[in-house]
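During the first year of the project, the team set up a workflow for recording each protein of interest as an amino acid sequence followed immediately by a discrete structure-token representation. This format lets reviewers and collaborators read both layers of information side by side without switching files. As required by the reporting guidelines, we include two representative entries from the current panel. The first entry is reproduced here exactly as it appears in our internal archive.
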Amino acid sequence: MTSIFDKLSPSARMQARVELAKKKGKDKGQRPLSSLPDPVDWIEANFYIPETGEPMKLYPSQAIPLREALRVGEDGLFVYSTVCWSAIKKSAKSSIAAAVGLWWAFNNPWSSIKVVANDLKQAASRSYEYMTRAIKLHPEWSQTCKVNKYTIELPNNSRVEAIPQDPEGEAGGGDDFVLYTEVWGWKHARAEKMWTESTLSPLKYGRSMRWAESYAGRVGESPILESLHEQGVKEGKLINEEYEYYRNGRMFCLWQTRPHLPWQTVEYYDQERALLSPEEFDRVHSNKWAMSTMKFVPDVWWENCYRNYERTTEIVVALDAAVSGDCFAMVGVSRHIVYDDDYQIVEDITRVEFVRVWEPEGEGKIRYTNPHDVNDRSTPEGEIRWLCDNWLITQVAYDEYQLHSLCNRLNEERISDFVVFPQGKQRAVADKQLYDDIRGGRIWHKGDGELTEHVHNADRKEEGDNKLRLVKRKGSLKIDACVALSMANYAIRNM
């Protein structure tokens, strides 16, 4: 059915919708937006934080952009309908989002406020948690508001709800204020659908808003945030250079890349540089996009780990599983610890003692064993048996996926202690530990050519929470010896 709007030009259609929104607001007796309290003044009077037990004080880098983001135009409507609030870590993004959500709820009766995250647990943390905290700390609100695990009910009939991504359930929700948290982590099709389904109702044009808070993500992995950045920063107009915010039509985009707050000190950033990879440091502390995969370690880091040392016979061996068309790697490492006079560790080194790599033969498969001679050193089984006869092997860590049969059989013979090395979270922790140990010079090697090649071939994919994964830069490059080193290093440091 054709509506009257369809017969109008785009500009006339937009103006008609504006007038309709104004009329509906008047008909319902809604409070004129121009009469809303200044958001900065209101937050500084009402939004309590536990750090001080008093309302939060906003700095210019927060207050000036905030007033612009919530500005009411001459037509009596909000100037912006979409706000992307992106700033470096420890800039109080979540607190500000929470404060704006409560400002909206308390000053617009019967409002519906949603806090959306990847899952229900995440939705109930961060911004929603800060809302509940502020209410509990407020001398009056703590008595008049009903706070539950996932909902807040205000005496003016406004309601705040923390929800997970549920695009089917949220279709046509008609909310007044929707807050999306940590949008850099919204990666999957379900997240994109949720963003689409929670779009604002045309009946609330100029009186509703979407607010996305986050710092930068990884290229190709944060489609919603990338789109906001593209529209807001790349295609938008810079309207404040000092505090780095932009405008593109009805979209406001804050994208701060510099520290502005007193606690963002040189000492703090020096500490963070020692803990994070350079790319991850730039992502969270400079709000710069990171590549989804990056070179595992700079070549110079690996070169700086070269040493000439005497052989040690007590080692841990790791085996990286081989599949058709791939190669098979075996790496043995020892651990070298030096103590001072007070028995404090001054040096803790993993030393590479042994490397062997097998390439596929014939039909693209590796021959694990020689059925006519189990001691044939041209096969992995023969080499393992030789190592166990000539070295003190305290553990053999292996990837169960391809090596279960071989290693289980050797373990039953009790030639050594064969231990399955899980390839899920434990591998991600191990890969991060190898990265840190190479960076800190705690891995020593003698320049083995195949191991060096595999280290140089490897990329890393950050997985957050102090984890990363070794990945191939491209399918034809081999990284198996680097993976085996990661497993061996983790195993010997956690025995």
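The second entry, processed by the same pipeline in the following quarter, appears below.
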Amino acid sequence: MPLVIQARNLSKRFVLRHNAGELKVRALGLLGAGARARREEFWAVKGVSLRIDAGESLGLVGRNGSGKSTFLKLVAGIHRPTSGHLLVRRGVHIASLIELGTGFHPELTGQENVLLNASIYGLSRAEALAVYESVVAYSGLRHFMDVPLKNYSSGMQMRLGFAVAAQLQPDVLLLDEIFAVGDEDFQKQCMGTLQGFLASGRTIMFVSHSAAAVQTMCRRVCVLERGELQYDGDVDGGLTEYRRLNAQSPYRPVGAVSGSEPPAPRDDHAWHRTASGGDWEAEGAWIFDFLRRQGLRPSQYVLDVGCGSLAAAIHLLPYMEQSHYWGFEKNMELFVAGVQVELPRAGVAPERGHFIVNDDFDLAEAPHEFDFAIASALLRRLSLNTIARAFAAVIRKLSPAGRFYVTWTDVPRDAAFAPRVSAKGEKTYPDREPYHYSFDMLARIAEIAGGRAERLPDSDHPRGESIMEITRQP
């Protein structure tokens, strides 16, 4: 296959200015009475060399701050290299969907933004008008095309941006996990389009933290770590390397030099402790106490849904009989941090229980029906489609008298479709993380999944989340 993109010892440096924007600090610095603004060099991409041929589907993976998005922006021409060379085959048309709103203007309508975006890609007005109808049909936003973009949800913006990129039929498409905010049906439509791109010999570069998405779309994976290329090869090997790196140093801050890392923090500010909303220690203790108040006994079977970094497992594993605790998690990196950091610190052996990690809420490997299941902090990470899948999977695994407890950020029914600020100052959303939902909405999903939901009066959740109990319908 012909070469389309080649990076030769490619590097990109940014200069970070600490305290530069604080007027008080700058004034005191001039008077010699305080710290001056400090400059620091940060190499987001460092000495990367790789070749990408036509028809390849390349996944870029790595933890946050590893240089994935910066590399895509170098290919897209948004950034210029500090050193090295980035070569693109003459005549190759590159389209990108890297950040929501790129190429769009919030005050313009959807129609105006489609024409603007097409012109950015080099189309004349006549050419843009020729593809306009196909863009609208693909996006499914016909009734919103005369509405200003600032009134679109993030999912609607993504639909419009992807529809433009898809209808332009580029030679190379750059994606930065942007369609993860879309609903399930549109994601399937996107996947079908991407498969069509590859079948026609086009090239895709894809940044994602989702192992399932990378496995579905990519045939080659490059792993970046601190801006350097650590792995270039097959998908399974790349994902294994990524998980190894992440498990090896889950606390390493972005840009840290090897050997200079601070010791693993013992408070709730570690990344895996804040990933689910914070209050890690309090939430783990609350789950354990709550389940015991509901009658959990060591001889019963319990399912910790969205066990994350194992805040509850450090209490439940020692309490339950051998193999009676089961944990499920979607996010491999959160789970690895829990096993590698939190369980050893607490002196708890993971072998006392069983763990399932996948993106599909597939609980088939659990041979038991569960007397208790609990999902605390999970729903703030899940869209409605995913919640429906989760509820159906768990309800099917409940014993006839089993109970499934769920906590969530509650909003009144008439406020469910607008952003909301909680009493603690946290902003939640109906269409992106952290999510909020009305009880009526979740109860209806539970009913469709074969359960019955009842709101509980408990009000002692560490983050003030509401609690419901779901039981199987007779």
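For the second entry, the following points were noted during internal review. The chain is about 35% helix and 25% strand. The CA atoms of residues 407 and 466 lie 5 Å apart. Both points are flagged for discussion at the upcoming steering committee meeting.
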